Amino acid sequence: MKKTLIELKTGHEAKVIEILGGEHCQARLSSMGLVVDKNVKKLSSHFFKGPQTVEVGKTRLAIGYNMAKKIIVQE
Q1: Which residues of the chain are modeled with pLDDT < 50?
Q2: pTM of the model
Q3: Which domains does the chain have, with CATH numbers?
């Protein structure tokens, strides 16, 4: 089932299947190692549209709410 990174529940893993952002967004995420076909594990999300903390490989990332809602994943 497709969903955004925002909708992924804490503790669950999923595969990135699409990034909806423009070139800048995709380049930024790519530089952090978050690209299509990578597996991510959601570690936490913060209240009031705060950052989403995920683990990509052995790296932990905090991704802003607006960028995270552009990342489409599949569990």
Answers
A1: none
A2: 0.89
A3: 2-74 (2.30.30.90)
